[in-house]
Amino acid sequence: MTRLLILGSANIDHVMNFDFLPESGQTLMSRDYRLEYGGKGANQAVASARLAQPGTRVDFICHVGDDVAGQQLCNAWLSDGIHPDGVHQIAKTSTGNAMIFIDKNGENMIGVSPGANATLTPDALLRHQPLIEAADWLLVQLETPVLSVLNALKLAKYQGCSTILNPAPARTISKELFQLVDIITPNETEAEAITGIEVTDSASAKLAAQMMHQLGLKTVIITLGKQGAYVSSEEFCGLLPGCEVDAIDTVAAGDTFNGALMVALSEGSTIDAAVKFAHRAAAIAVTRAGAQRSIPYRHELAIAPSAP
After folding, report:
1. 28-41 residue pLDDT tens
2. Residue 261 in 3-state DSSP?
3. What is the pTM (predicted TM-score) of this model?
4. Binding site listing
5. Which of the pair, 265 or 290, is modelled with greater confidence?
6. Residue 255 annotated among the catalytic residues of the structure
7. Contact 47, 255 (CB under 8 A)
8. Could you tell me which residues are annotated as the binding site for K(+)?
9. Which of 167, 176, 153 is nearest to 195 (CA)?
10. Where in the numbering of this chain does the Carbohydrate kinase PfkB domain appear (predicted)?
11. Would you state the pLDDT for residue 57?
12. 222-254: per-residue pLDDT in tens?
């Protein structure tokens, strides 16, 4: 049995839709407001669970509050088949929250209050050591304490686990952490934060990928929104176009991509085939409103749009 593990954040998303995103100092009236289940770690865990083949075990290491929102999240993850062993409700703490603004083209701005996510410290991580030791693949982001992410990667690599880092949100990352990562999946903004190179197309993505290889990263996948993803690895190098769809909400697109990528790779797909699989999953997600509720199930990919 293949075991997939995601370590990361869980949030309640407060979502507002606008014709256009506000500028600094500007106040806008939203068209609507809704609550969604989100958080990069949780989104990626849900994507992994919905897209994995039967018999794959998906675990999620995260902290939520001892509030109603935390219990609602836990119940939703159970219904998707995520094992509960790594999920802990922290007493006298609120579940993480995110404020999300979306424009009419599906572009977004996001602010996050970490809440219980911040309590996933290195000491707290010790209780989850057996899950990390048993994992075949580990997927992490940067919405939880970075030292905990580093420690999880160290333990995973010691056990021979394959590792994926989605370096979001963009922040300074140590070279030590990079050397524990098999695959890194930044978007344009995150790639620029790591390398200092403004990434706008496949040519600039290639330069950024080359710099990331110099940091010790073996496989680099830079997502380029509508353009697709630039892949740089020993197995494949080049731009893989995305699927052409009418996007209405891009909030969970990157998270769906990352969860789908791990699933495909764990099933033995080549890196280019795995990215194409991830493109199809993300293409469905962006045509739906919401974060976790937009993420497709495996059977839906059979009729998903293909890249041009």
Report:
1. 999 999 899 999 99
2. helix
3. 0.93
4. 11-13, 39-43, 143, 187, 223-228, 249, 251, 254-255, 279, 285, 288, 290, 294
5. 265
6. yes
7. yes
8. 249, 251, 285, 288, 290, 294
9. 167
10. 1-296
11. 98
12. 999 989 999 999 999 999 998 888 888 788 899
Structure token pair of residue 45: 């865990």
Classify residue 234 by its DSSP letter. Answer: S
How would you label 69-102 residue by residue, b for 16+ Cβ within 10 Å and e otherwise?
bbeebbeebeebebbeebbbbbeebbbbbbebbb
pLDDT for position 304: 65
Q: Which residues have CB under 8 Å from 229's CB, separation 6+? A: 221, 222, 223, 239, 240, 242, 257, 275, 278, 279
Beta carbons within 8 Å of 26's beta carbon, 6+ residues apart: none
At residue 89, does pLDDT exceed 80? yes
Annotated active-site residue in 59, 67, 182, 255 = 255
Grade residue 290 by pLDDT with cuts at 50, 70 and 90: confident
Q: Which amino acid is at 202?
A: S
- C-alpha–C-alpha distance, residues 119 and 216, integer Å: 30
Q: Do 50 and 294 meet the contact criterion of CB atoms below 8 Å apart?
A: no
- Cα–Cα distances in Å, from 16 out to 7, 104, 181, 282, 290? 27, 11, 35, 21, 11
